[in-house]
Request: fold
Amino acid sequence: MTGYTLPHSRDACAALDAENPLRAARERFALPEGIIYLDGHSLGPATHGALARVEQAAKREWAEGLIRSWNTAGWIDLPHTVGAKLARLISVDADAVIVTDSVSVNLFKLAAAALPVARSRTLIVEASEFPTDQYVAEGLAGISGARLMRVEEDRGLEALMETGGILIRSIVNYRTSHVMDVAEAEAMAHTSGGVIVWDLSHATGVLELNLANSGARLASGCTYKFLNGGPGAPSFVYAEAELARRMASPISGWFGHADPFAFTPGYAPKDGVARFAAGTPGVLSLSALDAALDAFEGLALRDVCAKARALGDLVIARAEGIGLEAISPRAASMRGGHVSLRHEQGYAIVQALIARGIIPDFRAPDAMRFGVAPLYVRFVDVWDAMDQLADIVETRAWDRPEFHARAKVT
Ligand SMILES: Cc1ncc(COP(=O)(O)O)c(C=O)c1O
Reply:
């Protein structure tokens, strides 16, 4: 239930856009003319605020302020101040989040730190999980001697119940957009003595997350997707305070030290989640992210989530009319912020769309992902994109040599 009625014409789409509670948010983005951007689940677009902030951070704070800016521009606190802003989007305490490193690195840190805490030293991942999550579990098992269990899709919780180990799991699957029930999973983790490390990469900024109430204790997630932090923006770590105190980061770097500028030889961790910081933060990226998060100011996450799902419903309804199969759930409540459509020529079709100014993406072997980031994607955008998709599929306009040539990044 999204509270929206499915539009059956472009005019009906325009009417939904005109009355939408998020309609003003689009103005916060520096979107290029003539482009329909449906790839915000991979790289969010720039906001005007982020662009201005990068300029300020580079030209004023760095070039003029030099090293003084660590104190005078608040650089040293950015991992925490940006973390506090982000905490609102996942509904946890402001001091339970820091922004640092990449998701891959943070999943490693959290899973390694959970090994002595969980009932058994078993690392569990599903074979349908985003590859980096699987690789991290594999690598960590290799160096720690923990047992690796790679199980079939949706079998992770069963394995967790059996072993009381550590499950690394996305809330929203990167390929199908399928959403997992966090509260139900955490109840099972609790009973089993196991721990879940959540990957929120495709969930933050698009779902109405309530991590604290759902009992989630450990998480990391991307900030360059629906949070629009910019290419390679640092990810975040959430750790519930009491558990964090019982955990040690495997990378005991000086930024996680209780008093880094005391320059003492022994390691003593900061309190809480802050111990998961390792080295010097990337200030320019953090500054961009800080400003980008302001795009969510004044918006209710309920409205954000409802619009994403209504846009997704429209993608699925139009795709059915074209004869394309959706591998994302039909039920809006089970879906994140993108819809994946299957076609064996998906890569070439996506290239043909890009040539027409419509940008989705492709995940091997056959999934075309249409991201419906609700802050800037309009119903008319989806309608127009689906018109073009229909034309490309019906006329086989994808069948040109240049659309079959694979680029490095898909
Ligand atoms: C679910 C998921 N986890 C992790 C990552 C990668 O994160 P990072 O590159 O920050 O390590 C991605 C990137 O797309 C992702 O979709």
